[in-house]
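User: Hi! Is it possible to get a structure for several chains at once, not just one? Here's what I have:
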Amino acid sequence: DTGVSQNPRHKITKRGQNVTFRCDPISEHNRLYWYRQTLGQGPEFLTYFQNEAQLEKSRLLSDRFSAERPKGSFSTLEIQRTEQGDSAMYLCASSLGGLQVGGELFFGEGSRLTVL
Amino acid sequence: GDSVTQMEGPVTLSEEAFLTINCTYTATGYPSLFWYVQYPGEGLQLLLKATKADDKGSNKGFEATYRKETTSFHLEKGSVQVSDSAVYFCALRDGGGSNYKLTFGKGTLLTVNP
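Assistant: Yes, the chains can be modeled jointly so their relative placement is included. Here is the combined structure:
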């Protein structure tokens, strides 16, 4: 399968614990995006990488959240000191070009976080 | 800010029925508009798009026309199939030239019964 891969698919954790999600984009895609989707809502933009550079972060991304893409390939999203409000599906997407030039977003299946 | 409003779901239809899912938007400038679909257990997939007023996007029998005067991008299909059962999301990329951000609606769950 050469699509966007996310791991783990489901994570259950206790409040206050740290969690990390991994995203492996389509190999030739240089742009990578993280979105968050809560129940009954559409995906909301969190952050964006072009190669290894994090170029944009949403105000939704509090200081407990950190995302990296160290070698311009896979990315990690870490949430420190999780809160129940962090419970959501975390979606990763990648694209070959920017959206402005018609680049299409390819989404992974998501990582579902449940904070007890 | 930019926003997308979709008709409330869920929508339940019989096979071969006509489908309309309404989508209206608020945005600055001239946004590009998209419909994404999420089949059970799968990631979001681009279904169709339109980048300027009066453009019609189409794919898999689905169509949507970019109507600037009514700020709408309604999704239609003449004859739905059971395999069309999924969640459908309307989305926009703002007209300011953002090359990284899509704004999504809340999604509409479609169930097609045989």
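The radius of gyration of chain B is 14 Å. Chain B touches chain A at residues 4, 32, 36, 41-46, 51, 89, 91, 93, 97-107 (CB under 8 Å).

User: Great, thank you!
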